[in-house]
Fold this protein.
Amino acid sequence: MKTFLIVIILFVLGGFILPNDYSTSKNLRITAPASDIHSIVESMDTWEQWTVWEQANPPAGLEDPGQMQSGAGSSLYFEGRMLSGWFVIKSSSVSEGFYYDVMAADGSKAKGAVTYLDNGGVTNVNWTMAGNIENPIIIAPYLALLMDFIVGSALNQNLVNLKEQVKRGKS
């Protein structure tokens, strides 16, 4: 019983001491110019075709923060296995990349970016995402430790799917 109590106390203390921030980054080389890749990435109406996040209609009463389908200011409401919310594009250009905010239905927020390094028709695509988990308070830091696996897996699959989408666009 004493050992169990010590484990519980250490778990709770860890929940208050450990950081609840996370950051993950994945990259993939795609044989295509950055402009071809960027045109797919910035178009929110094609995301359902190649990302793991499913486009959905927002619940009644939620206002769409964006009005367009591509470029800065556009948005997409998504539903996933673990999270739902909005992607909102903050800026988008071939040279600078694609930057977005995630506003989840549970109140958590994250920032993401897809950047390109074009090496003469072979482009290194880098996808990063960083955020902070606030709830549940004691468990949040432990969830943050898992985010590289959870979010990283999604980003990696998105990149693989993006590569296939780019190939389909070329044929």
Q: What stands out?
A: The helical segments are 2-17, 34-41, 47-50, 140-170.
